[in-house]
Amino acid sequence: MEINLVSFCEISRGESNILNRRRAQLIRPEIQALSAYHVPDADDFIKLDAMENPYSLPDELVRQWLAVLASVPLNRYPDPGAKQLRNRIRDYMEVPPGYEIILGNGSDELIQIIAMSVARAGQKIMAPDPGFVMYKMIATFVGMDYVGVSLKDDFSLDMPAMLEAIQKQQPAVIFLAFPNNPTGNLFAENDIVEILNAAEGLVVVDEAYHPFACTSFMNRLNDFDNLLVMRTVSKMGLAGLRLGILAGSEILLNEFDKVRLPYNINVLTQASALFALEHAAEFETQAACIREQREWLFDQLSALSDLDVYPSAANFILVRLKNGGADRVFDGLKKAGVLIKNLNAVGGMLAECLRITVGTAEENKIFLKALKNVL
């Protein structure tokens, strides 16, 4: 049978035109304007782009973990509230008595749950800028306005601007990454307290990088009725599990729990996280190694005249090319087999900036050698 290619192409173009019209009619304009969250292919690279813990578990612990997974009943739905895991996390993370936690499929789901719970016409989400990209993206997803308040040149909070924006915008939720991503610095605790006192809405202190910052607002939950504290197990070495934790008053979390999809934490994640917490000392040792390597890498980078290097309390370091060339350096490192995060395209305060995840000692040395070759 012969195929008329001209007719086939005309039909294909016609179907495409119909789908484009339907997209324009049905999909919200602000969603059409977004770009999907992009994760680059990292095969065969030294991966220093995603703030992951570079260490795997010792072989003996892997064998014990696999034995645990072998007994998990995959034919049954998971505990919808993950009660055993929540109790263990509450103890490990020292959540104050009388306060509750809920779990999310990563912190991203918790951000979305919070946003969905407060979304209504005219409500706003606020965060310092630059900050974690998902605050703005999820505000858009749920139809809320996003208010970004620029940081100062040293990436500290511009408190007059923050307080003015809070008074003027009255945001439903303020997200404060502590330390901040992608800048790595810890905001001053007194500034966060001032924001908590000024805000009529909720203030979420996002402590994703707590294993490397070693400071927290968890013990301040009793002091502020609008405070929520968010954590994740991703940075401690369990990024593949996708498990986020939100701590706060039972009254608020009961409302958020209504929005949480049932069975959002699968049986393998629940079993794996429980096993990991039984062996938390291993992850704490790894975090200490990363903190040591962060200080070594910071000193090495600071010795390079081409870079401005910013202090970090996280497991990554932000640098700026003094004379430009971030794209060239990024491409050169990629050709050398090292993948980092190029923030130059974001522009603004992040123009000519690169973000380097702290790797193992060997990875950091390979990166530093490659960097010196391309500067």
Q: Per CATH, which architecture of the largest domain?
A: 3-Layer(aba) Sandwich
- Characterize the biggest β-sheet: 7 strands, mixed
Please mark out the parts with pLDDT under 50 across 5 or more consecutive residues, or reply none: none
Number of helices: 15
Percent range for β-strand residues: 15-25%
Order of helices and strands: HHEHHEHEHEHEHEHEHEHHHEEHEEEH
The domain count comes to 2
Distance between the termini: 61 Å
Shape descriptor reads: globular
Taking all residues together, what is the mean pLDDT?
93
Radius of gyration: 23 Å
**Helix content estimate:** 40-55%
What would you call the structural class? alpha/beta
CATH fold assignment of the largest domain: Aspartate Aminotransferase, domain 2
Write up what this structure looks like.
The protein is built from 15 helices and 13 strands. The chain is of the alpha/beta class and 375 residues long. It has two domains: 46-51 and 281-374, Aspartate Aminotransferase, domain 1, CATH 3.90.1150.10; 74-278, Aspartate Aminotransferase, domain 2. It has a seven-stranded mixed sheet. α9 (210-213) links the parallel β6 (202-206) and β7. α4 packs parallel to α12 (267-278) and α14 crosses α15 (361-374). The termini are far apart. The model has no long low-confidence stretch (mean pLDDT 93).
